[in-house]
Design a protein that fits this description.
There is one protein chain. It is globular and about 70 Å long. It is α+β, with helices and mostly antiparallel strands and 538 residues long. 30% of the residues lie in helices and 22% in strands. The longest helix has 18 residues. 49% of the residues are buried. Helix 9 runs antiparallel to helix 11 and helix 10 runs antiparallel to helix 12. The protein is built from 17 helices and 21 strands. The chain has two domains: 307 residues, D-Maltodextrin-Binding Protein, domain 2, CATH 3.40.190.10; 219 residues, Dipeptide-binding Protein, Domain 3 (Dipeptide-binding Protein, domain 3, Roll). The strands form four sheets. Strands 3, 10, 11, 12, 13, 14, 15, 16, 17, 18 and 19 form an eleven-stranded mixed β-sheet that branches. Strand 4 and strand 5 form a beta hairpin. It is found in: Cell membrane. It is a lipid-anchor. It comes from Paratractidigestivibacter faecalis. InterPro entries: SBP_5, SBP_5_CS, SBP_5_dom, TAT_signal.
Length: 538
């Protein structure tokens, strides 16, 4: 047997080349951005590290915390401090960091690996973490209908070898993303009920939940944690501040030390107050999806025409204050596996009209749906005007995400086009995962977009499978072909790729005399990364 370390992806940054520092925006307000800067946080200012309350402003509201099916941005971010996988992800660069495993997987053969749990690992309730807990957590995560199933299809099973060791079987020989995918499976006690998992899960991470509500979650250090990243503060409090004004005010006043999703128009305001604002080019997209079950959206040329009809430059200025980019690939340019796609789309109304004419389409009634995200609503308003200019009679309907998708999931002809936000990189950053979220064998392709019966979808998924079975340039070539197919078919495709701004009292103390350790970094997806982060007080 030999130790298994991920080939090109272990500790792999998703940002590449000299663009990395600029893309991460680590020194946006003159703060020390080095990864080795933490030692300076206390000594440079004479501050005390830890022992306080680490406060975070979330842009989202909590729902289910269930680690086996969590999709809530609030709950995912909170769970990252409580739950561990065999391995975990550092979302500042999508590298793999330590979790419950004592080391790398040990290869038994090309399809079989063994993983041993770290000595003395316990859940916050004091019970030992065992191989049985890992197996049951895998079974929960892969149960039929589960949110993460399409991410985990390469696992043939996880079995108990002994109390501290599990045997992992995969269908793809020498699977290069093993640790990244094991990180998706969060380990919880076998005895934890489904209801308790949704309401207040128990984990083995550095923090444990003490109180959860519709508007906040409070956490305390897990006294039984013996891993690499112990909590140094007395409390972690995450506030649901969905109102942008309330979120910015809380950060400016120092009620929160970190806030996610700073509105573009408020960045200068927070900087003037002394906050750092990291601006990270992540995978976050504002995408368009067509109802391909009905004409004329079953025609790729018509879908392409709509892409050319959208005045994306105007959307960037009006809705994002410049903090977004027009895609040239399914992946943003800052991602390692980026490859300029065969088809790119910039605003060209004349070309859009010409393509509709060539396709024999006479514009008629059109139902454009959006979620109620403020930026997306603004994009929808712009799109409505752009499509009217082509001759369509556009009805614009904006609603909360659950209501929007409930309507679409009826799988009828009541809608034509959707514009919505989406970001699967909150689960991980590898290219296959980002493709699989929308284009795997799941609800998006079966019901919402209903593209899974097409030859193009079958070819795409074949290439995705081929990519997982190879590495290096061969793998990149498979993904490049995937990007080209998606850019040609545009059944579901990024309209814009956005910058994620995160505010923190890091270089300077808040009005309350507190800051966070200087190695805090904003991330390019929802939530905040708090591994090893603590308060600093004067």
């Amino acid at each position: 047997m030999k130790n298994f370390a991920n080939h090109a992806v272990s500790r792999r940054a998703f940002l590449g080349g000299s663009a990395a520092a600029a893309a991460l925006g680590l020194a946006a307000c003159g703060g020390n951005s080095g990864s080795d800067a933490k030692t300076d946080a206390g000594t440079a200012t004479g501050g005390k590290e830890g022992g306080g309350t680490l406060t975070v402003g979330s842009a989202y509201a909590p729902s289910s915390y269930d680690p086996a099916n969590c999709s809530s941005a609030f709950c995912l971010s909170a769970n990252a401090n409580v739950m561990e996988g065999l391995y975990n992800i550092d979302f500042t660069d999508y590298s793999v960091i330590s979790g419950l495993a004592a080391g790398d997987p040990v290869e038994v053969d090309a399809n079989t690996y063994e993983v041993t749990l770290r000595d003395g690992a316990k859940f916050s309730d004091g019970t030992d973490v065992t191989a049985d807990d890992v197996v049951s957590s895998f079974e929960r995560a892969t149960a039929e209908g589960g949110l993460y199933v399409s991410f985990l299809t390469m696992f043939d099973g996880i079995e108990k070898k002994d109390d501290k060791t599990v045997t992992v079987k995969v269908s793809i020989p020498n699977f290069s993303l093993l640790k990244e995918r094991l990180a998706i499976i969060k380990v919880m006690p076998s005895s934890l009920s489904a209801d308790d998992a949704k309401a207040k899960p128990v984990g083995s991470g550095p923090w444990m939940y003490t109180e959860v509500s519709d508007t906040y979650a409070t956490l305390a250090p897990n006294p039984n944690y013996n891993g690499e990243f112990p909590a140094k503060d007395n409390e972690l409090r995450i506030e649901s501040l969905t109102d942008t004004t309330a979120r910015v005010t809380a950060q400016q006043e120092g009620t929160t030390l970190v806030t996610e999703s700073v509105p573009p128009e408020s960045i200068d305001q927070l900087k003037a107050a002394g906050c750092d604002v990291d601006q990270v080019n992540g995978f976050g997209t504002r995408f368009i999806m067509f109802n391909v079950k009905k004409a004329p959206w079953d025609d790729a040329k018509v879908r392409q025409a709509i892409m050319y009809a959208l005045n994306t430059e105007q959307m960037i200025q009006n809705a994002f204050s410049g903090l977004a980019a027009i895609p040239t690939c399914y992946l943003p340019e800052s991602f390692t596996n980026y490859h300029k796609a065969a088809n790119t789309y910039t605003y060209d109304a004349d070309k859009a009209k010409s393509m509709l004419s060539e396709a024999g389409v006479t514009p008629g009634d059109l139902v454009l749906r959006t979620t109620d995200n403020a930026q997306v609503v603004a994009m929808g308003t712009q799109a409505q005007e752009d499509l009217k200019a082509l001759g369509f009679n556009v009805t614009l309907t904006s609603d909360q995400s659950p209501a929007t998708y409930a309507a679409i999931d009826q799988a009828d002809d009541s809608w034509d086009i959707l514009i919505a936000p989406g970001d699967p990189s909150c689960f991980g950053g590898d290219t296959d995962l980002l493709l699989n979220w929308w284009f795997g064998d799941n609800v998006w392709m079966k019901t919402r977009c209903a593209w899974n019966t097409s030859e193009e979808w079958k070819k795409l998924n074949g290439l995705m499978s081929d990519a997982l079975a190879t590495s290096g340039s061969d793998q990149q070539d498979c993904w490049n072909q995937c990007f080209d197919i998606l850019s040609e078919q545009v059944v579901l495709y990024p309209v814009l790729q956005v910058v994620t701004p995160t505010g923190s009292w890091r270089s300077a103390a808040s009005p309350k005399g507190e800051s966070v350790s200087s190695d805090f970094k904003g991330i390019g997806t929802t939530g905040v990364q708090l591994t090893s982060i603590n308060t600093v007080t004067a």
